[in-house]
């Protein structure tokens, strides 16, 4: 858990929230992301909420309604007006979330300059790096459900899986810039050492072949 805690902290961007042109929530199986996006809207931090996500690798097997549509439903039930919501419900990964949302905004003749990106806690940094690769001229803050590592796991995503995903995401942060998927992010030696120790302990199910 000490090693996992180091990765958890590294994956967080620790941005301080401030007003922006829009809130951009990236879809997934974790409905708490929609709760966080809704919370930010109701606090008055942006006039527009974009929910992006079709059915991905995880949700394709458990849901029939797209991630973005479910997220939008949560927001509306909690008090966000439909007129303040845009839905992009075809994307299946973070890169597509961004590219398909770019297309949607262009169709709507909208050009927000500042974004609050809402994602799962362990995907904050990778979302930041992906966004800056595909949308370098925009300003962004990244946030996630305000939960600790011990609070985050639930029946759908137990602790073992959370750690496996964090390990896999750190590997992607290291190798994806060379593939053109993300901008570079520095990885301190102590974080990479924790990664290697977790891999040695068997947390390797989310790794990709290099």
UniProtKB/TrEMBL annotation:
This protein's GO CC annotations: plasma membrane
Highest taxon of the lineage: Bacteria
InterPro entries recorded: Cell_Envelope_Assoc, DUF218, Rossmann-like_a/b/a_fold
Coiled-coil zones: none
Domain DUF218: 21-139
Pfam families: DUF218
Name of the protein this chain belongs to: DUF218 domain-containing protein
């Amino acid at each position: 858990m000490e090693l996992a805690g180091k990765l958890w902290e590294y994956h967080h961007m620790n941005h301080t929230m401030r007003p922006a042109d829009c809130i951009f929530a990236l879809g997934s199986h974790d409905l708490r992301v929609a709760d966080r996006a809704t919370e930010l809207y109701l606090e008055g931090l942006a006039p527009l909420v974009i929910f992006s996500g079709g059915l991905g690798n995880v949700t394709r097997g458990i849901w029939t309604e797209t991630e973005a549509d479910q997220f939008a439903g949560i927001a509306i039930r909690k008090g966000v007006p439909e007129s303040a919501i845009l839905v992009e419900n075809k994307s299946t990964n973070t890169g597509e979330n961004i590219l398909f949302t770019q297309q949607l905004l262009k169709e709507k003749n909208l050009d927000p300059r500042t974004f609050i990106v809402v994602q799962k806690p362990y995907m904050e940094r990778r979302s930041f790096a992906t966004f800056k690769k595909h949308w370098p001229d925009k300003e962004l803050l990244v946030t996630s459900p305000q939960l600790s590592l011990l609070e985050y796991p639930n029946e759908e995503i137990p602790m073992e899986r959370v750690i496996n995903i964090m390990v896999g995401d750190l590997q992607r942060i290291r190798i994806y810039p060379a593939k053109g998927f993300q901008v570079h992010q520095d990885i301190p030696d102590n974080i990479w050492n924790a990664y290697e120790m977790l891999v040695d302990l068997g947390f390797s199910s989310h790794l990709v072949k290099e």
